[in-house]
Specification:
alpha/beta, Flavocytochrome C3, Chain A, domain 1, Methane Monooxygenase Hydroxylase, Chain G, domain 1, four-stranded mixed beta sheet, binds succinic acid
């Protein structure tokens, strides 16, 4: 397969890039599963944007959105990146509306939600299924766009670069080896512009709000190809994942209760009905997520309870049904009427703030390789992402990446012919007949990361995690090289790499900042106010 653009991942970043790229050439979009299996499709809250006063009543400003983002980011945001992404917001919302996204309105004005850390109402939404609405519009438009081929059940194995083929002087991307997970065949996909938009790595943790597909593929692919990775210690835990101990199935266990519920007045309380979050921050339940998640963790440890409660029962009857119909209906399915009962909740892994080092246009250190959306570390989020800034980032980066590619890859700037790409070599490997090894290692990684590397960390726990992950990494590599590839092995290989990158970054950060909190270094150290950058070579 050959195309002008190869896009790995089909959330908001990948699809909105593909739609732009299709005006300039052929585009292949790889999806690991079916079209709607992405973090984007699961996003409830919305997309934070400052709109012109003619379109909303909020009194908001770019400066205020920038200030809130910098405040949440705990000193590690790149202010220039923050300004660029926030300033481009309104224009990219127009693009989304052009693709058919319908946001909630009141008359001619957009209805705006509020979430933790925001000083104003500025979250555009479609009830409580904003991500699904964006995914729907982008997928439907992409399906009707002749230059785009959407390939479901196609898993990238490894990126192909000139350096990997021995031409180290001119490192650029040439494409990827890709597994068709249905036929189990591996092919070379050639493209001079490869866009990683593969999302994050929530599945590294036992409890997560992410879909099963979030196995850190993008960061692992880029790392193996030699790109730098930064700030992986900053994994965001969402404070309010529905606590549903009897649940089976990933969706029931990962069910998110949007922060927008707190934006509309929902309050976190303990079993006695006390608002414990006020002890941590005067903003209480609407403080930034790192603060709220830590307050919950502390309260659970203090009381020995299994969960805390999100109480929105003081709102008039019918409010939840109208504003949050998806959450309301789902909770009802699990036997809970949130208009009359408080919702049991616990924190769960939600968002990867670090990732592949990239500028706001997604440019990585490897020519032709772009990383956009959650997979990238641009400096927008710093040590903690402000809620609902990520759909914005994915959408803006897609636009800036396309502009950058058009500038850099003009036809007159053709690169020299690459070395021939060797066919995929399955070697003497056996068909995998020991699935139990994969499942065992997968479970072990997720439990170990939850126990040792989650909301509260210590040097000792991180050391233990690093040692276990070294062994697991070795076992997974042996398994990978000894068996024919399949989607499960590839995900496990990426999962162990993402987990190791998180721990390697966390070990280096000898302070507490944003989402990284360690009992051994509880203070923030001014001299450590810089990114944790990992370089492979
Ligand atoms: C939510 O709806 O609470 C999630 C929004 C986000 O993570 O940005």
């Amino acid at each position: 397969m050959t195309a002008d653009f190869l896009v790995i991942g089909a959330g908001v970043a990948g699809l909105s890039f593909a739609l732009r790229a299709a005006r300039h050439g052929s585009v292949l979009v790889l999806m690991k599963g079916s079209a709607y299996e992405s973090n984007t499709a699961w996003a409830q809250g919305g997309i934070a944007t400052v709109l012109p006063p003619s379109l909303c009543f909020s009194g908001d400003s770019i400066e205020s959105h920038v200030a809130d983002t910098l405040d949440a980011g705990a000193g590690l945001c790149n202010e220039a990146a923050v300004r660029t992404i926030i300033s481009e917001g309104a224009a990219t919302i127009e693009d989304l509306i052009g693709y058919g996204v319908v946001f909630d309105k009141q008359g001619e004005q957009f209805q705006l939600g509020k979430e933790g850390g925001h000083s104003y109402r500025r979250v555009l939404h479609t009830r409580d299924t904003t991500g699904l609405e964006i995914a729907r519009a982008l997928i439907e438009t992409a399906r009707q766009t002749p230059n785009i081929t959407l390939l479901e059940h196609h898993v990238a194995i490894d990126l192909i670069t000139t350096a990997k083929l021995g031409a180290v002087a001119d490192d650029r991307v040439l494409g990827a080896y890709v597994l068709n997970a249905r036929s189990n065949e591996v092919s070379i996909f050639r493209a001079d512009r490869v866009v990683l938009a593969a999302g994050g790595c929530g599945k590294v943790y036992l409890y997560t709000t992410n879909p099963d597909s979030a196995t850190g593929d993008g960061v692992a692919l880029a790392w193996r190809a030699g790109a730098s990775v930064a700030n992986m210690e900053f994994i965001q835990f969402h404070p309010t994942c529905f606590y549903n101990p009897g649940a089976t199935g990933a969706e029931a266990r990962s069910f998110l209760v949007s922060e927008a519920v707190r934006g509309e007045g929902g309050i976190l309380v303990n079993g006695k009905g006390e608002d414990f979050t006020l002890l941590s921050d005067p903003r209480g339940s609407l403080a930034p997520r790192d603060i709220v998640a830590r307050a919950i963790d502390r309260e659970l440890k203090r009381t020995g309870a299994d969960c805390v409660y999100l109480d929105i029962t003081h709102k008039p009857q019918g409010f939840m049904r109208e504003r949050f119909p998806y959450i309301y209906e789902n909770l009802l399915k699990y036997g809970l009427d949130c208009e009359t009962q408080a919702i049991p909740v616990v924190p769960a892994a939600h968002y990867q703030c670090g990732g592949v080092v990239a500028d706001v246009a997604g440019r990585t250190g490897i020519a032709g390789l772009y990383a956009i959306g959650e997979v990238a570390c641009t400096g927008l989020h710093g040590a903690n992402r402000l809620a609902s800034n990520s759909l914005l980032e994915g959408n803006v980066m897609a636009r800036l990446a396309m502009a950058d590619i058009l500038r850099r890859f003009a036809p007159s700037k053709q690169a020299p012919a690459p070395p021939p790409i060797p066919e995929w070599e399955p070697g003497n490997t056996a068909e995998s007949d020991e699935l139990v090894v994969i499942y065992h290692n997968w479970d072990e990684i997720r439990r170990l990361m939850w126990d040792y590397v989650s909301i509260v960390r210590t040097d000792n726990r991180l050391r233990r995690a690093a040692a276990r992950l070294r062994n697991l990494g070795k076992e997974v590599r042996e398994f990978y090289w000894g068996h024919r590839v399949n989607a499960d092995i590839l995900e496990l290989r990426n999962l162990v790499t993402a987990a190791s990158l998180i721990v390697d970054c966390a070990v280096r950060r000898q302070e507490s900042r944003g989402l990284h909190f360690t009992l051994d270094h509880p203070a923030t150290a001014q001299r450590l106010c810089h990114d944790t950058v990992l370089r492979k070579f």
